[in-house]
Write a structure and sequence with these properties.
The protein is α+β, with helices and mostly antiparallel strands and about 170 residues long. The protein is built from three helices and six strands. About 30% of the residues are buried.
Length: about 170
């Protein structure tokens, strides 16, 4: 399945953020997913993945889902996570997100984190406010669309993608 673009400084998907999760998202056009294996730097209690890491992973996964189907980016308004069991470090999991409702002013999405064996570790619900087309185009300009990635026009067909666009300011 095609990859989604990433922003190199992003805590969740950034390959240029040494403190981050460095995951890469994929889509089938309806759902979004990624594979993740928690390392020692992601630890809460001894040997267990910190819940905040799982919440960030779910938020990003759920947040991408309505973007893919609605072709606009969005920002989190509210995220609710239910932690069903501790996730041991080193356990491979798949985080999956899907849009629930994108017809209203606030979009809704659901998501879950499951082990490769099907064990459910966490599930979530999120509410997201869509960005304007102009704001979406601003984001598209600094994303990395590398090999195997969906094309910029699949994300936001109304934007022009400038591969030489500079990164946003350090504080952005």
């Amino acid at each position: 399945m095609p990859k989604l673009p990433n922003y190199r400084r992003c805590f969740v998907c950034g390959d240029g953020n040494p403190a981050g999760l460095t995951v890469r998202f994929h889509t089938d056009g309806a759902k979004v997913w990624t594979r993740f294996v928690a390392k020692k730097r992601h630890m809460g209690y001894a040997g267990i993945t910190h819940g905040g890491v799982l919440a960030a992973l779910l938020d990003e996964t759920m947040g991408w889902a309505p973007c893919v189907t609605s072709r606009r980016f969005c920002m989190s308004v509210e995220v609710s996570v239910e932690f069903l069991r501790p996730l041991p470090l080193g356990t491979p999991v798949i985080a999956t997100g899907w849009p629930q409702d994108t017809r209203r002013r606030i979009w809704q999405a659901h998501g879950e984190i499951r082990g490769e064996d099907g064990v459910l570790y966490a599930r979530g619900r999120g509410r997201y406010i869509p960005m304007t087309e102009e704001q979406t185009c601003d984001v598209v300009r600094y994303l990395t669309f590398d090999e195997g990635c969906v094309a910029p026009e699949e994300i936001a067909p109304y934007c022009s993608h400038d591969a030489d666009a500079p990164d946003p300011p350090e504080g952005a």
